[in-house]
Amino acid sequence: MANVSVAAEWQLLYNRYYRKPELYPMRWKHIDLSRNKVACAPFGGPIAVIRDDSKIVQLYAESALRKLRIFNSAGVQISETVWKHPGGRLIGMAWTDDQTLACLVQDGTIFRYNIHAELVEPSISMGKECFEQNVVDSVFWANGVVCLTESQRIFCVADFKNPKPHELAEPGLEDSAPLCMAVIEPQYVMSGNVEVLLGVTEGGLVVVEEDSVQRVETVGGEVLGPLQKLAVSGDGKWLAAFTHDGQLLVMPTDFSEIKFACNCESALPPEQLAWCGMDSVVLYWDDMLLMVGPIGEPVRYLYDEPVILIPECDGVRILSNSSMEFLQRVPDSTVSIFKIGSTSPAALLYDALDHFDRRSAKADENLRLIRSSLPEAVETCIDAAGHEFDVSRQRTLLRAASYGQAFCSHFQRDRIQEMCKTLRVLNAVRSSEVGIPLSIKQYKLLTPSVLIARLINAHQHLLALRISEYLGLNQEVVIMHWSCSKITASLAIPDATLLEILLDKLRLCKGISYAAVAAHADKNGRRKLAAMLVEHEPRSSKQVPLLLSIGEEDTALAKATESGDTDLVYLVLFHIWQKRPALEFFGTIQAKPLARDLFITYSRCYKHEFLKDFFLSTGQLNEVAFLLWKESWELSKNPMASKGSPLHGPRIKLIEKIQHELEVSTKQAIFVSEKRWYWLKVFALATIRDWDALEKFSKEKRPPIGFRPFVEACIDADEKGEALKYIPKLADPRERAESYARIGMAKEAADAASQAKDGELLGRLKLTLSQNTSASSLFDTLRSSFQGVS
């Protein structure tokens, strides 16, 4: 009798059975689908409802403000928000793969919402043309949309994650609007781009791609009339089309043939056309649902309320004001057990369990009949249990499988255990509070990890955690999301209290990233909580960067040095170096030996000047002097070469800083020769224009470098008067002559040159003073006298 009651609910379409169990009575109140625009997500996803602004509707006990409401599949409200967007009427809305609601308005703007009715920024624009011409129709798919403008131009966003609107090829419709529109998703097209199918009044189809337009007027030798409604199958291989004369045509999307045609006995186009899995097509008129298969008479279902068809991979969900139903083909395993009069091994095994429960000897008789096919019967019962939504029927089928397995020595013992696991998960998410009515085929296609992600997004954290633990999946994602959500929602809870709440859950998962939770706390303006959380992060590589981002540089430096990771220490050093004044930076690293040593090592290679400042600030004058010596050593052995060196200026500056702090003996302690010391000090004093100090320095003792550097320094500083103090002290008359010539004193230069009795020198001096006519004649006279003497 049980078999009869189960099979009595089925409808036969040719040789295939279909069933339409009720998944939920809808728990919403005062929702009339005919007055609203509705978007339903596949895989048992949420339902979005908003009042249709293209219809004149009567308002009952409700606000005149339009509200976007989001429900689960059982009609339990998840969230709502007031719709207050500009841009004209709402043209269409649909859910994307990641359960983001995309809403397209008349001016081509797409507003996006998450499942909690929170606006996702930024909005997407379909372009200037859509804004100017207005959008009149749209078709969404998993992650994209195409829209049609009033001027019959088609625009596309192929991927909402990377929204780049572009125009497809001109369809050439002139002023006649298409009768219907459908798309073949990019993943099912050879080119990888979306194909748009348009039914036109002239008959046939217009296939629009990125850069081409194809006209399809005949299929398999038959002329296509005007097509009123189109629907592409879930795998992109088949097209269902309703013609102007009331026929339903099914053809492959390469338009090679018409697979079958069915007269629907109504020229009025259906309000909705959808595929029921891959086996049949469902059409909906005002009060009737018609299911058409390739062979046999259609099946009719009558409704006295509006419905919405939601295509799934293995059927179609039917949403009405009062219920959610699932129309699907009855699985072969279920048919073999519950078909009236079935004598299959699985049916006999199921019947044997019934006899066993009634303590009848008929149970043993049934088992003997199917002993050779017992493994097959057990497998069929397990498979049938997986396809059931009724929990008691699942349990009975699994008991039948377990009963048969006891007499079967060659069967995988873990098959029943695996199915029990799967069904426990499915039953948990099918509860009306969660409202995700997945079939087992949908569950396997969606995968457990995606299901857990959807539960997390719906803030069903406890259920997601239990499923993760039950299936042996990583729980870190769940706990992390819960922690971040808790921080966002707990603005009134003190930091210390909230920290204890968070740690209580975070400790459940070893290796979880406290730094990521701390970063979220900082983003929400709770910097103190972030600092407290990051203290529990065991990995320095995650801890240190976050400490820097929240302004805890000193703590970051301490943690980096404790870790011994030089890369982390350098990261902190460079960060502090850029943010703090030099003296404060020097004070910070002075107390950290590792940081100080790394800074010195780096600066010796790349930042000499900064290193000198560091040594000066810490009183390490010997180190400063050593750097000076090293720089000088790298220069040419000719002391004069340092004047043109880029190191000369900084060296002088440093000498200026330390000249009053270094004793004369320092030059010996730091291994600088006396002559080089004199050169450096002369040019340092000249640079700072301390002429009194320079004169005093020249009189301390006879300079080991002579007085020429004093003269050179004064002349370079354009201080001729100062130079005259030292030129007479030059022992070599040639040097005196050249020095006098450089400051423009021709007569004195000539006198010094005459003492040298060097004709070549006189020639050089003449060139130096070539602009002075009298000086030139004087040098010529002297030169002639020298030649006469010779």
Automatic annotation (TrEMBL):
GO cellular component, one term: HOPS complex
Localisation per UniProt entry: Vacuole membrane
Domain Vps16 C-terminal: 512-633, 668-772
The UniProt record lists the keyword Protease: no
Domain Vps16 N-terminal: 8-414
Key word Protein biosynthesis present: no
Keywords: Membrane, Vacuole
InterPro entries according to UniProt: VPS16, Vps16_C, Vps16_N, WD40_repeat_dom_sf
GO biological process: endosomal transport; intracellular protein transport; vacuole fusion, non-autophagic
Gene Ontology MF annotations: actin binding
Membrane protein topology class: Peripheral membrane protein
Family from the record: Belongs to the VPS16 family.
Protein function: Required for vacuole biogenesis and vacuole enlargment in dividing and expanding cells. Involved in the docking or fusion of prevacuolar vesicles.
Protein name: Protein VACUOLELESS1
